[in-house]
Each structure stands twice: as structure tokens, then as C-alpha cells.
Hints:
The structure holds two protein chains of two kinds. Chain A is mainly beta.
Amino acid sequence: GQQLNQSPQSMFIQEGEDVSMNCTSSSIFNTWLWYKQEPGEGPVLLIALYKAGELTSNGRLTAQFGITRKDSFLNISASIPSDVGIYFCAGRRNNNDMRFGAGTRLTVKP
Amino acid sequence: GAVVSQHPSRVICKSGTSVKIECRSLDFQATTMFWYRQFPKKSLMLMATSNEGSKATYEQGVEKDKFLINHASLTLSTLTVTSAHPEDSSFYICSAHGTSGPTDTQYFGPGTRLTVL
């Protein structure tokens, strides 16, 4: 079952604002991943984190792998309308064991 | 790189028929492929994990005789929904795990929307 707690469930923000979402777990993961899914499409990998404490950026996106290995956050700076979608975190222990958060639905108002 | 395709993207079928969905890793070899099901506004639910050349491992509650998975090569896995019923209508997504390097993570296909009438 789902073991990741992702929050917030949804966000309604104004274009230009920064966004922050996070995932926590009671279990340790070896890898944290952040995906974005748009309606009718599969999730697209945004950022992959492989080491505790790792901070990685991809354009306006920044994600960190928590020191305890039980959490991760994703920040989006200066949001734009095309950031709209559902963002999923995923924690992976080994190749065959990956768990997903429930998703954060982001709406950006122009 | 790391592109995963699915075919068909959308299928509508009559109740009782079987539907096959293909998942291909186009530019890398996938030792492991995963099949997920997603209901509207919900997260992805893992159905099964398949390794090339071996039987798939199904998650609890997923009927292996209803959802047949074949992983015949390092670039192709198929999911067959047998004797489909309206409750099988859903968005099915596959993902592929690469063997090494930059593909050492899961990449998802674009999904297949199944509607059973």
C-alpha cells in the first residue's frame, strides 16, 4: 500500500509565486523521485535524488533528499501557467519497490 | 533518451473481449517493467512487476489470470486484460527500469485509456 504522505493535496497559486510540496515516510528510501503528470498522460520524471542530503535543481525546480532518508521536498520558483499538473513524489528502496505519494494538484492562475 | 512508448493510447471495447496493451522502451534495455493502474484524480497503483524472461510478480489483490503480463524481451512487455468488464475501465500506465547509468530509474509510458462498454 501507499506509504508516502504527500502534502499539500492541492494548491491554487498566482503566476509568479513560489511553490513548495513535500513527502514524508515512516520508512527509509534509497532514492527519491519527483514526477509531473498532465491530464491523459503518463508521469514525466523531473528530478531524481540518490543520496541523503542531496540538493538538485532542474531549471526552476529544486528538490532535496532529506538527511533522515524519510522525506523529500520539491520547490518550484516563479511559477508559470504551464506548471499546472499533478506532482507525485516516489520513494524507492530497490529496483522493484517504489512507492508513490497521493500527488499534489497544482493550479496556477495567470 | 529514456523513452517509453505504449500502444494503443486509447481503446474502447465490448464487455467480455480481451485487450492487449504494449509497452516498449525505445532507446534503452529495461530489465524490469512495471504496470500501474490509475483511477481519476488518484495516484498510481502498482499492479505487477515483470522481469524479462520470467513470470510477473503481482501485487496483492491483482488477479494474475485476468491481467496477463508477458515480458518477452528487454524492450517489450505486454499487459492483456482478459474478458474485460466495465469495472476494468481505467488508465493503465507502464514504466521501465533501465539497467545502468542515466536510466537507473523508472521512466513512464504515456498511458493507455481503456473503456469497457
